[in-house]
Specification:
Elements: H1 8-14, H2 16-29, H3 35-49, E1 53-57, H4 60-70, E2 78-81, H5 87-95, E3 99-102, H6 114-124, E4 142-146, H7 157-167, E5 170-174, E6 182-183, E7 186-187, E8 194-198, E9 212-216, H8 219-228, E10 233-235, E11 238-239, H9 250-260, H10 263-281, E12 295-296, E13 302-305, H11 309-318, H12 348-356, E14 357-360, H13 368-385
Parallel strand pairs: 2-3, 2-4, 4-5, 5-8
Antiparallel strand pairs: 1-9, 6-7, 6-12, 8-9, 10-11, 13-14
Helix pairs in contact: 2-9, 3-9, 4-5, 4-8, 6-7, 11-13
The protein binds pyridoxal-5'-phosphate.
Amino acid sequence: MKVPLLDLEAQYKSIKKEIDETVLRVIGSQKFILSEEVKALEDEVAAYSGTKYASGVASGTDALILSLVALGIGRADEVITTPFTFMATAEAISIVGARPVFVDVDPETYNIDVNKVEEYLKNHNAKVHGPSSMGHGQQGKVKAIIPVHLYGQCADMTRILDIAGEYGLKVIEDTAQAIGATYRGKKAGSLGDSGCLSFFPSKNLGGFGDGGMVISDNKDLIDHVKSLRVHGSKTQYIHEELGYNSRLDSLQAAVLRVKLRYLDKWLEARRSVAAKYDSAFKGLPIRTPKVAPGNVHTYHQYTIAVKDREGLKDFLEANGIGARVYYPVPLYSQKCYASCGYDKKDYPVSEKLSDEIISLPVYPELSGEAIAYVIEKVTEFIKKGA
Ligand SMILES: Cc1ncc(COP(=O)(O)O)c(C=O)c1O
C-alpha cells in the first residue's frame, strides 16, 4: 500500500466541479491581478479569522516582510523569534535589515519558549514603565516578537502579549501553518498586531500556487500593506515610498474562496486522524503531539518524536509511507547565518528535536485503511527496536 505524506489530487477530486467552474469564470473575466476575487477573499478570510481587515499578498513570506515594514521594523532593530521553524520566518526579519534573535523552544509544544523571550528582554531591553537596567532614554533594540504557530498549534499568546505590552513590542503572528487554529477561543492570527497566512499548496488552506495574506484589526497597518504590495502606491503611478510587487492573483483567490468553505470540515478530519494516531501510539516509546491548554490544534503536521528517527523514516519510506522531517537544521545552524555568531549550545531543545521529530501523513482525505497501515508500520518498527 502507498500512503503519501499529502494527497492534493484527492482534495482536488473531492471539489473538482466547483473549482473548475470557478477557474473558468476567472479566465472568462480576464481579470487576473487583485480584482474583486481578491477583495472578496480578503473579506471572507478576515471574517473567518475574526479580524476587521486583510490584505492578500504574493506569499506567506511576503506577508511577514510587508508586516515588518508596515510596523516600521528595519535596520538596527532586533526581532525575537524561534529557530525551530521554516526559514521564511527569520529570512523576513533579515530581509528588512533587522537581526533575528533566536530563543529556544518549549519542550512540550515545540513553540517559542516564553521564559526565554522574557530572559532575553530582561537583559537587553527596557520596560515601558518601571526601572530600567538600560542607559537613560535607551529602550533596547528588540522591536517585535514573531511567534510561529508551529504544526498548526498556537504559541503561548497570553504570555507573549503580556511581555510585548511590558516592553512596548509589536507581535507578528506567523500563522502560515495554523489558519483556523484557536487560542482561548480566538483564531490564530487575530491576537497580535498582525497575522501572516500562507496559501502555499500544502498548507491547510492551499492555493494552486503561491499566495499569502496579512490579517489585522489595525486599518492603518493593512492600508500600508496594501500600498506596499503595489510598489508603495495608494494612487496609481504615485509612489509615496519604495514597495514591492506582491499582489495576490485572482485565480488563487478564487480557488481559495472555494476551499475556505471546506476548511473547518478538513480541519476536523485532520483532528480525527490525529486522535486515532494518539490512541494507537499510547504506551509506546513515541512522543505524540501535546496540545497546550486553551488550544485547538489544526494538525498541519502530525509530528512525533522517536529515538531512531532516521531508522523509522527509512522503514516507512521502504513501506510506501511518506514521512518528512520539519525541520532537520535549526535556523541558527543554517549556512546563511554562519557569520552571525549564534551558538547551538544555547538551543538544547531545538537540537534534540531536530534529531528526533518526524511528521506522518495527516491529510483530511486519508482513508481508515491508510491510517491503520501507518499505525501498523510505525508500531512494527518501534516494537522491533524496543
Ligand atoms: C512557519 C512558516 N512561515 C512562513 C512560511 C512562508 O510561507 P510561503 O511559502 O507562502 O512564503 C511558511 C511556509 O512555507 C511556514 O511554514
